[in-house]
Amino acid sequence: MRQAGRYLPEFQEVRKEHSFFEVCQTPELACEVTLQPIRRFALDAAIIFSDILVVPQALGMQVDMVPGKGPSFPEPLAEPSDLEKLKKDVVASKDLKYVMDAITLTRHKLEGKCPLIGFSGAPWTLMSYMVEGGGSVTQSKAKRWLYVFPEASHQLLQLLTDVIVDYLVQQVMAGAQLLQLFESHAGVLGSAMFSKFALPYLRQISTRVKKNLEDQGCTPVPMVIFGKDAHHSMEELAESGYEVVGVDWTIKPQRARRMVGPSLTLQGNLDPCALYASNDDIGRYVKDMLQKFGTQRYIANLGHGMYPDMDPDHLKAFIDAVHMYSEDINANN
Ligand SMILES: Cc1c2[nH]c(c1CCC(=O)O)Cc1[nH]c(c(CCC(=O)O)c1C)Cc1[nH]c(c(CCC(=O)O)c1C)Cc1[nH]c(c(CCC(=O)O)c1C)C2
User: Fold this and answer.
1) Is residue 258 in some structural domain?
2) How far is 106 from 144, CA to CA, in rounded Å?
3) What NCBIfam families does the database record attribute to this sequence (predicted)?
């Protein structure tokens, strides 16, 4: 339920008093808005309130949340020499301590009602924001870097990977019970560029996070890789060391299953805009989705984030339908 809070009136109330990053940086507020959807709905998990862009902030970049527009970097990376401006010695337990504090507080406040998910943006997705300076349809500035400055791109992607590994390990130590990595901009790369500039780093992250946790005597947690529009690389994502592959609504459930094989868990993939439909229709869409994915090795979810104008009652219809139809299917099997 990415960016879940936006459609809730109680979240908007908190946002009237506090800026977006103030909520992220204040553990009590981050905890409160994480719990808001849990109080309202029969959700099976909570995702810690934060944003993928706290990592570029920790690297020293300024990020503003512009109302009605989204995140904006006043000084994006323009050329390779700008990499020198980035902080090289980021320590997640210090520079992103507020996220760990929010996770620990939220784990306590959840009192075991449901598990808590930690997350990070994946290296290519974060690099694209840092070069574009905000959202972009074409990602042409960021893609230009890959073609014109491949070495500097790898340097930046490796720096991001090192920070993300430390960040995710710390989130588990602070109490996160599952980790999700968002490769939201997978779709603008073709398979060749994705293999070169995204996959090696995604593999490094899953391998190193698990190993670091084991080395510190911690049991590794399941990890989810969500690649938006990642049709071109589903098989490769399935082999990149994650237990769960998240899929958006543009991929047929049966095709996703064929591409990732029988042993991984799939997550997704209702079109978030289906929540504009009537509650009866939402029930029908959910039933169809569950029949296609089946109820085993599967996490029912939307295929991407919700929009601010969506009706909370329609999300309730989605969640209740997931529980009702999956219980039906299980009872008849
Ligand atoms: C998991 C998560 C995210 N953001 C937020 C959460 C917290 C959990 C939740 O509330 O569900 C809060 C979260 N993040 C944001 C909001 C809205 C801000 C507000 O108005 O209060 C919220 C609640 C702002 C935000 N932050 C971002 C955007 C997209 C910008 C673009 O490319 O055009 C936007 C609009 C970047 C972002 N942020 C995130 C992603 C990955 C998922 C995805 O693909 O959507 C991305 C790409 C992840």
Assistant:
1) no
2) 41
3) hemE
CA–CA–CA angle 10, 107, 7 (5° rounding) = 20
SS3 8: coil
pLDDT in tens, 73-105: 999 999 999 999 999 999 999 999 999 999 999
* C-alpha span between 268 and 260 (Å, rounded): 14
Residue 50 lies in a domain: yes
Number of domains in the chain: 1
147 noted as active-site residue: no
Cα–Cα nearest to 194, from 159, 235, 224:
235
Q: Whose CA is nearest to atom 1 of ligand 1?
A: 2
Q: Does residue 227 sit within a domain?
A: yes
* Separation CA 114–CA 129 (nearest Å): 32
Residues 250-261: pLDDT tens digits? 999 999 999 999
Distance separating the N- and C-terminal Cα atoms of the chain:
28
**Which range of residues forms the domain containing residue 240?**
4-246
pTM of the model: 0.96
List the CATH number of the domain containing 204: 3.20.20.210
**Domain membership flag for residue 126:** yes
